[in-house]
Design a protein that fits this description.
This protein has 43 helices and 3 strands. With 736 residues, the protein is an all-alpha fold. Among the domains are: 153 residues, no CATH class; 113 residues, 2-Layer Sandwich (Potassium Channel Kv1.1, Chain A).
Length: 736
Amino acid sequence: MENQKRHEQPTTSVRKNLKRKLEQDFEEDRKIASLSSFDVQQDLSREVRAQVDILDSSFSSIEADRASAKRAIHVLSELAKNEETVNVIVDCGAVPALVRHLQAPPLSREGESGPKPYEHEVEKGSAFTLGLLAVKPEHQQLIVDAGALPHLVDLLKRQRDGKNSRAVSGVIRRAADAITNLAHENSSIKTRVRIEGGIPPLVELLEFVDMKVQRAAAGALRTLAFKNDENKNQVDESWDSFRDLNTSIIFHANDVFEFKNLQIVECNALPTLILMLRSEDTAIHYEAVGVIGNLVHSSPNIKKEVILAGALQPVIGLLSSCCSESQREAALLLGQFAATDSDCKVHIVQRGAVKPLIDMLQSSDTQLREMSAFALGRLAQDIHNQAGIAHSGGIVPLLKLLDSKNGSLQHNAAFALYGLADNEDNVADLIRVGGVQKLQDGEFIVQPTRDCVAKTLKRLEEKIHGRVLNHLLYLMRVAEKAVQRRVALALAHLCSPNDQKTIFIDSNGLELLLELLESTNPKHQRDGSMALYKLANKASSLSPVDAAPPSPTPQVYLGEKYVNNPTLSDITFLIEGKRFYAHRICLLASSDAFRAMFDGGYREKDAKDIEIPNIRWDVFELMMRYIYTGSVNVNLDIAQELLRAADQYLLEGLKRLCEYAIAQDISVETVSLIYELSEAFNASSLKHACILFILEKFDKLSAMPWYSHLIQRILPEMHNYFVRALARPVQADLWR
């Protein structure tokens, strides 16, 4: 997370902005050279070579030569503003000529004094043009190899001559801008700038009178302060590099930081940079916060120095800047200050950072939202900050950011919510605004975000007990209906099975969930279905759809060999004109229906042959086989008829076996008919299996035209089912 949006200038997009800025600032009153005549590359090459020839022949202090050089450089700079011509300019040998003119030419006569012709103007134009050429990365090293850096560093020092003219300001600014472009994303050139002594004059220029120069110097330092592994390694390898550059610091062998950063700090840049943070000029404080951010990046020791130097409050102040880029950098920097190795999380909150950070969450600027969420996520790792962020209104905007299509923004928001969920005082607030539903329903782009959300839900689940649960139950009693429903939905997913009866039976939570099924809002219907399904699964470890019930233990087993065996038979059934031999003792023990038949006042009591008119032979045979053996294989094609027979003769064990077999056939197309069947034969387990299927498959069933009618039909039985299920001891078998 340290690498979030921390960058040097210019980035890919900012480089174009810088070029535009250079164009606008470069003597706008000059007549712009026309490019319309350069229709062919050959003509362009000829023109460039002509200007290069002028530069090669005019390196002198004679006024005419200086004027010629100035005009030639101006032509080249105008051409260089078009990126399509940059390669031609370089290929025609312009770089060495421009580098040569970065320095003042020798005096024409010894002892000559007084103003020099076009003093600083030619050098400024050369630096500006080289900066434009350096926008292409492949030209950076070429320019440096031509010897540009020492001359550019010398130009930075011209302010030491005691002259603060507009020309001096211009040449210094162009030199700083050129260094920025040359060092952009080029670690070796950053190192070369340091070796050439470029950092001390840049630090000095932070206090220059001209604010444009301050800004340019800060921009260069910002680029040089960006990560540079080569310089980091040099710290470990050579103590001499400290002595050679007159740096006096205590070095700890286990610390790894960028040497150039240390030099910037050792040049006493921090006090000035921190003053610049308070500047009313947005460009100034934007560059300053960028420099500090890059100094702090991956360097705990510099981070401590920056905080000790008093950066915290002005950085917090930038959160309210009118410049969104400064706000973004400030938020990122505060996130770095609040890292796990920092002890200033609480100080940041105490000094007023939370409110502007929360306001930034609602900005139209995606990067601004991303960085503020990042900072809040870091701050939310402290338990007291967690409560403060929630109390200041941070929960709702963070939840809204979960809908973002930006993966980094989404993850930062999720991480911040994970922190807030750690505080018991925030749990009820998260739930009452629909946070649990938002976390459950979100479409998260990257796996780390999905993992973070899962951990947040788990963290909430672990806290729903004691005073948190009491608070939620209180909301279910007194809050507005929408909040009551959100609480009931969240508790259905997160509460302990041991608390289900208290929540959903004693505290009316079940009624709230069932009401959602009757809503005309599909989202409410879906939320209610998913919550009730989760509740049912928690109420029992076994589902009637998933596990076959054990057969009851019969009082008498005559065994397989006595099925339809005339041996010792004392009763005969006539089915479809065929005889089935049976034994009263076995039948009497099997069910109340047979006991009533043979012991009651029915005509079958003394009959030897009993006709069975409404059952097919194969169905009756299976029923009798169950009575004689205690088990039977129920095939789906015969299960419904066998269920009817089992219900007629009150054979509960066989009935439940049939219910299980039929339950395997429940589908979107059959569930309505199977539910009717369960009602017709009082098949409670099958009925419950249908209920669970209807809840689980809401997304498919809700599209059916008969869905609403089916829900109205099953609601009473659904209520009864949950009342019974939630009243049972946890882990009870639903089939018992």
